[in-house]
Amino acid sequence: MDMASTLLAVAVTLVFFFQALTWTRRGKNKRLPPGPKGLPIIGNLLMIGKNPHHDFQRLAQKYGPIMHLRLGLMPVIVVSSAEAAELFLKTHDLVFASRPPHEGSKVVCYNQQNLVFSPYGSYWRNMRKMCTLELLSNHKINSFRSMRMEELHGCVQYIREAATAGGVVDLSSTVSSFSTDISCRMIIGKKYDHDNFSEKGFKATLREGMQIGATINLADYIPQIRALDLQGLTKRMKIIAKDFDDFFEKIIDEHVRSKDENRVKDFVDVMLGFMGSEETDEYRVERDTIKAIILDMLTASMDTSAAAIDWTLAELIRHPQEMKKVQKEVKNVIGMRRMVEESDLEKLKYLDMVVKESFRLHPVAPLLIPHVSREDFTVNGFDIPKGARIFVNAWAISRDERVWTDAERFYPERFIGSDIDLRGRNFELIPFGAGRRGCPGMQLGLTVVRLVVAQMVHCFDWELPNGTSGSDLDMREEFGIVCPRANHLLAIPTWRLKD
Ligand code: HEM
């Protein structure tokens, strides 16, 4: 070992020692929520496996709905009941409305200038207002209705051809391509272009970024070793960041040069309209802001909706009775001579229950996005330290046997006569989060999920390949910020509509 490495090792050890000492002293005078004992320095990191939401649920059964752990040097609070979630996301929402430092977002999202990871404060408020009022308003979402239908027609046509040929369709990748295309057209004004991106490809790069973003990065939990980048994640993120930055630069330049005044304004157009507007200074948008928000909108919209559609279709294929009920409802409401339109959706009440039930069993962001405590605070008699990461286990909450009868069963009828919805008012079902940091794209996400599910079951009957029965369908999940099916959903379609 050379002198520099020795000094570095000594320095890191000393920092750890003093940090651990401070942490223990601070912890001693506090009444932290109950939780498992951790090891020095790494805390409870080894207790968390491939599916942290499952591990947290198991631990919470022993330690309770407000549980304390330590991941590395960071205090972590896991919230696992509807009542506790209400305390953190509604009653004391303001205290927990920030996001923790996130190495991945720092590197890729221009120092956490995106909406998803920006800390609570005036920048976040500004961006949130811009996204809610200018990009994700009902009016703006509706201006892309015909584009969504055009893409959906293409998708249905593709499946129809497979049906004619009697082939198997990879529903997961078909839905994912559709979702990518509508997101790109809405956000950057066109489908992504292979030639304009690095060799690895746009979707693969985006997916890699999300996968790294969801990996427990030691730099976030033991900041003293950030510079060592022990897992090599920051290095990989820097490559991704460069690819995206080049791509977004081209997109912005194309928009600045475009003279076509008549096209529907995409998100980049809208944001460029606010850039450098000195007089109004309405949203203080810089070039980096636009790039960070483009990435946010793409990552937040593409995989979330696709994963939710995939889970719902998988549940319906596993449950033929429920599948028949949705098909019957759509047939009664719109007949067999045309496809479903967005304007039909509000009449489809059973479909609504099916989608809710699927979100209950498969919230696509099972731990929401981590919140952080902005100050030392007391909740339910427990001291929550400033800087504690708050994980709300939406997955465990919506499978809580104390609230949901026969919680593991897919049973849409449970919502008959119930006014529980999934918009963040009922804390037993919060797939879109709740409160200040709740999802601003919920309306768009729900519209796309309902529309595509309705279309897929109205236009086609579905059968599993190789005589597989529904009960054998692999329903394992792959944990990430978004949690899709671990394996693609493959099925054989048969065309149903009358020409
Ligand atoms: C099925 C679709 C979707 C689901 C299930 C979903 C779910 C979520 C969840 C759970 C959160 C975190 C809430 C929290 O931390 O408390 C979130 C945040 C967010 N979502 Fe969505 N989302 C979906 C679609 C969308 C769409 C279509 C967009 C925009 C195009 C979007 C944009 C965002 C943004 C920007 C945030 C961060 C908000 C903030 O931190 O202030 N989402 N979403």
From TrEMBL:
Keyword Transmembrane helix: no
Keyword presence, Heme: yes
Domain of life: Eukaryota
PROSITE patterns from the UniProt entry: CYTOCHROME_P450
InterPro entries to which the protein is assigned, alphabetical: Cyt_P450, Cyt_P450_CS, Cyt_P450_E_grp-I, Cyt_P450_sf
Keywords: Heme, Iron, Membrane, Metal-binding, Monooxygenase, Oxidoreductase
Subcellular location: Membrane
Main location: membrane
Cofactor dependency: heme
Similarity field: Belongs to the cytochrome P450 family.
Alphabetical list of PANTHER family matching this protein: CYTOCHROME P450, CYTOCHROME P450 93A3-LIKE
Stated name of the protein: Cytochrome P450 CYP736A12-like
